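It is worth pausing here to work through a concrete case rather than discussing structure prediction in the abstract. The textbook approach is simple: state the sequence, then state the predicted structure, then interpret. We follow exactly that order.
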Amino acid sequence: MSIEIRHVEAQDVSDIKRILTDDSVMLGTMRLPHVANANVEARINTGLGNYKLVAEVDGSVVGICFMSSTPDVPRHNHAGEIDLVAVRSDFQGKGIAKALLGAMLDLCDNWLQLERTGLLVWSDNTHAIELYEAFGFEREGVIRKYARRPGGFVDAVMMGRLSDHHTASDLRVGHQANHSI
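Step two, the predicted structure:
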């Protein structure tokens, strides 16, 4: 199976709608079961600081990864948030999420020069948590009763990943500068 990672395109709306309304995906997000095409179209539009990748297999989009940042906010332009990683249930467990997340983090680290990438994940989504930890995300806290879902509430785990763009000499220079203030 060959996985192509690419930027989202307007013609992906129906495939993305299929992903967003997949039962296993809906349980892992705060999305509702019925989504209008217009809502999906609005969701995939990109603007400043929004990056949206898709995974395509045999001509169909089977996975999505969205990230947002605030490049126009000087005190927060070093950070981004993974907003969504989702894979159609019939393609889960085949490396799609790993390929999407790897491509998005490459974009964050090497092209956008982000120092921090964060995300929220449901506390019972052990497969996703293991994937995020494999990419260097660490648990930073728990938000109790974060979202409603059938049967009650679910907690969210805050996770963050710091990039290592600094060399040891950069850190020493910064350390000395802090002492001279």
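Step three, interpretation. The longest helix spans residues 96-111. The mean pLDDT is 87.
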